[in-house]
Amino acid sequence: MVNYRIDRRSGVATYVQIVQQTKQALRLGLLAPGDRLPTAREVVEATAVNPNTVLKAYRELEREGLVEARRGLGTFVRRSLGATPADSPLRAELEDWAARARESGLEREDVAALFTAVLETHYPEQDARPAPAHTPQGDPS
Q1: Res. 138: pLDDT tops 60
Q2: With the CA atoms of 17, 19, 22 and 24 taken in that order, what torsion angle do they form, in degrees rounded to the nearest 10?
Q3: How far is CA 56 from the centre of its chain?
Q4: What is the pLDDT of residues 4-25, one digit of tens each?
Q5: Distance of alpha carbon 113 from alpha carbon 60, whole angstroms
Q6: What is the pTM of this model?
Q7: How many other C-beta atoms lie within 10 A of the C-beta of residue 30?
């Protein structure tokens, strides 16, 4: 089961935070196909968000094919993402690194900026998409 944490100061829409946290749980193997997501009521009670916000997030996850709503039963995971289990040795290394960063005086935002910079070096965005094909003059398509 996933426990959603909503950061109202983040500037990220609440429903997007729910979607992102669900995807993270899928990537880490904390949620697997067949698992039931918390009901909208459970999420509302735990986070004090509007039920429509939870439903919007669940609809987005359903639109992406990650979950499916079953009338009267709840919302269930259809497929997982990624292949990094929560107990991966890489996680332990990252935990050690984060502890060292904190001990050295780095703030959360500093760590996030540093990690993002390194991430961009090793996983650059797909900016090198092929250019759209040139259409002949007079062809509006």
Answers
A1: no
A2: -70
A3: 15
A4: 999 999 999 999 999 999 999 9
A5: 28
A6: 0.68
A7: 17
